Amino acid sequence: MGTTTFSGPIKSGPVISGATAGGYRGLDLKDTNWVVNSFVRYFQEPTAADTDGICASQTTTAAANLSLDGALTSTENGNKVYAPSRSSTAATADGAWARKIGITSDGDDSGITFTVTGTDVNGKALSETVTGPNATVAYTTMSTAANFKTVTKIATSAATTGNITVGTAAVAADVYCRALGVIPYQSTVTGIKIWVAEAFNAGTADPMEIGKSDDQDYLADLADGTMGAVTTTGNTGGSVTVDATQSAVWKSVEQADTGADGVAYNSDVQAVLTYTPTGALSTAGQAWIKIDFMQGKNLASGDTW
To answer: Which residues sit opposite 103 in a β-bridge?
Structure first.
């Protein structure tokens, strides 16, 4: 039988219960001090707009689902969907950016609505109803929580007047976001670093932020002095700095959620990267982000830092 060797202090006895300890875990458990962990995520700059990449030009004669037949769609489990992170249309190595969706009409479709259904940056179900455009483009909401990573259905409330196309949007100052990885409940984030292989947006100082999916300020913002370096080739292992308030939050990562039963609980945090280019996308940027964190210690309310 194999043996396990622990390094560092080992304490036996009950794990402290309470609000800051994540709840009662049991008697006579072993506490092996901190466990150091990290994850590294490679990503590329978002692709340029493709106004008919999800739906090629089409009309409906009544309320109906549009055909998802654009160049960015693929067949998943027998259904046509826009899911670039799972198909050959992906512009990134391990998943596409969540972004806003644009619906274009060459006629007046302002009297009907379009309901876009898919998933958000975390892969959770997302749906939004958009008033139709009048010989222009109507967009879904632009935010970290509202951007679409996939689109599985687009339904019209009535017949369309003009020819309709649907695709990805890319307007200056749009927000793009993507999941980086999960930081376990009550971990301590010890550092974030970024390596840039190819400059983003021609090397301009485009803001990037790191945080949890529904609040990009939860973990960290890149400081002003770092933003330019982030988007410029040669920023090898540049550390991300944060202000004192955000640094304090790092010391005990927790996310308060409410379950289907209405009971609040603490949960792990999905770290999300948010990118806001100041100009047109160059689509050439390549970078890596590494997040280091320590996990496994049961914190008591009397613990100090």
So the answer is: 138, 166
Is residue 269, in this structure, part of any structural domain at all? Answer: yes
CB 211 within 8 A of CB 220: yes
pLDDT (tens, 9 = 90+) of the chain, 305 residues, equals: 566 665 555 554 444 444 444 444 444 444 556 678 999 998 888 888 999 999 999 999 999 999 999 999 988 888 999 988 776 655 555 678 999 999 999 999 999 999 999 999 988 899 999 999 999 999 999 998 899 999 999 999 999 999 999 999 998 889 999 998 888 877 888 888 888 888 787 656 677 888 887 776 777 776 554 545 455 666 666 777 777 777 777 777 777 777 777 777 777 888 898 888 877 787 788 888 899 988 765 554 444 44
Please tell me whether residues 124 and 59 are part of one structural domain: yes
**Cβ neighbours of residue 171 closer than 8 Å, sequence gap 6 or more:** 49
Structurally, the chain folds into a number of domains equal to 2
Q: Which of 154, 150, 52, 50 is nearest to 98 (CA)?
A: 150
Contacts with 262 (C-beta within 8 Å, 6 or more apart), sequence order = none
Question: What does R_g of the chain's alpha carbons equal in angstroms?
Answer: 23
DSSP letter string over 189-245? EEEEEEEEEE-SGGG----EEEEETTEEEEEEE--HHHHHHHTSTT-TTEEP---HH
276 inside domain:
yes
Q: Indicate the SS3 state at residue 93.
A: coil
Domain containing residue 214: 36-44+176-295
Specify if 30 maps to a domain. no
Residue where one domain finishes, among candidates 168, 189, 215: 168
